Amino acid sequence: MNIPTEPIGSLPRSKKLQEAMEGFAQGQVTAETLDEFFDEAVSETIEKFESTGSAIITDGEQTKPSFATYPLAGLTNLAPDGVVIPFEDGHERQLPRLTGGPFKYGEFAGSYLPRAKRFAEKPLKQAVISASAMSLLYPADELDEYTRESFIADLVDQAVEDIKSCFENGAETVQIDFTEGRLSLKLDPSKALLRQFVDLNNQVLSHFSSEEKSRIGVHTCPGGDQDSTHSADVDYTDLIPTLMELDVGKFYFQMASEAHPDRALTQIAENLKPGQRAFIGVINVIDEVVETAETVRERVLNAAKFIPVEQLGTTDDCGFSPFSDDIATSREIAFAKIKARVDGTRLAEDVLDFGRTANA
Ligand SMILES: [Zn+2]
After folding, report:
1. What are the Cα distances from residue 92, in Å, to 89, 95, 319?
2. What is the CA(15)–ligand 1 centre distance, in A?
3. 319 C-alpha to ligand 1 centroid (Å)
4. Centroid of ligand 1 to alpha carbon of 312 (angstroms)
5. What is the C-alpha to C-alpha distance for residues 51 and 335, in angstroms, rounded to an integer?
6. What's the gap in Å between 27 CA and the centre of ligand 1?
7. Are 93 and 77 in contact (CB under 8 A)?
């Protein structure tokens, strides 16, 4: 039996790459030189990724400024004072605020794939930011010459293009990052905001065929930046049923760091539709301790008590560095954790296969 295992996406950037990006931002490094640094970072990341045995890989988001802000590259209709996301350890991340329309992405996620494909032998997965996260750019007070309604129409169009760009550039799987799902329950316990987010993302998904949707997934987590979270204190079971109304073929659930995984796993099993697969997080990305393959195996076997093995997959709880300047975890630890996920998932397959043979 095969239990598919997939990464979420990002890996820490090397110090050398970070300095080059910083130098470019300050005008000390040319675009041509930065491009050489990008090639080196992506090629080295993919080589290490493939050596973990992972059947599907990413470019580690080495050249993405952050999982959420890449579409904003070069846009001039933004001000820096948008929505603030507070993390548990006291640090914050702030989104920009839209100052006028029309809203067009400055960069599509598919643009990262050609570079990755030059170095990769294995199939590539590409993450995109959700339309719901981008909807937070629109200010609380309606803009004079660009209504919220016009903004949403433009946003849906651009989010569809973003996913299409990934398929057109050869992505095997496209993952929608939906970290604001759990966060929305903190901002609005009535779930109205979550409802709005899910409906908006489903509007985007309605533009894809069933075959395409089977290759689209959604990632949920309580945030993972500088080894801290923004919404781990929100009860997971308040999120899962509404989240799973998203019309996708795959879900990627943070689970290894969850205090009560069994309650969440029960709910996932109840809401999983035929043909869908639940990838369960078996690697805690905010814990510096590298899991052993045996620890991973036990986490997979526990998930298999709830979720039919035919619909089970494994993943990391989150990306290792969703923001390019996050170096809380070293690259060595990140790759060791990925290898533990791959090896531990294989060990669990062996146990489950043996169980089937013994029962036959
Ligand atoms: Zn995440």
Report:
1. 9, 10, 18
2. 23
3. 6
4. 19
5. 9
6. 32
7. no
Q: How far is the CA of 296 from the centre of ligand 1 (A)?
A: 19
Q: Please tell me the distance between residue 30's alpha carbon and the centre of ligand 1 in angstroms.
A: 32
Q: How many domains does the chain fold into?
A: 1
Could you tell me the residue range of the domain that residue 38 belongs to? 5-359
| Distance, CA of 95 to CA of 83 (rounded, Å) | 5
Residue 197's contacts (CB-CB under 8 Å, 6 or more residues apart) are 130, 132, 135, 178, 180, 181, 184
Output the CA 148–ligand 1 centroid distance in Å.
27
Q: How far does the centroid of ligand 1 lie from the alpha carbon of residue 259, in Å?
A: 17
Q: Are 3 and 345 in contact (CB under 8 A)?
A: yes
pLDDT by 10s per residue, the chain, length 360: 899 999 999 999 999 999 999 999 999 999 999 999 999 999 999 999 999 999 999 999 999 988 989 999 999 999 999 999 999 999 999 999 999 999 999 999 999 999 999 999 999 999 999 999 999 999 999 999 999 999 999 999 999 999 999 999 999 999 999 999 999 999 999 999 999 999 999 999 999 999 999 999 999 999 888 888 999 999 999 999 999 999 999 999 999 999 889 999 999 999 999 999 999 999 999 999 999 999 999 999 999 999 999 999 999 999 998 887 887 789 999 999 999 999 999 999 999 988 777 765
Find the 219 Cα to ligand 1 centroid distance in Å.
7
The CATH number of residue 72's host domain is 3.20.20.210
CA of 179 to the centre of ligand 1 (A): 6
Q: How many CB atoms lie within 10 A of CB 102?
A: 12
Ligand 1 center from residue 288 Cα (angstroms): 16
Kindly provide the residue ranges of all beta strands, DSSP E only, lying in the chain, ordered along the sequence: 5-6, 78-79, 84-86, 92-94, 97-98, 125-129, 173-177, 216-220, 250-253, 277-283, 312-316
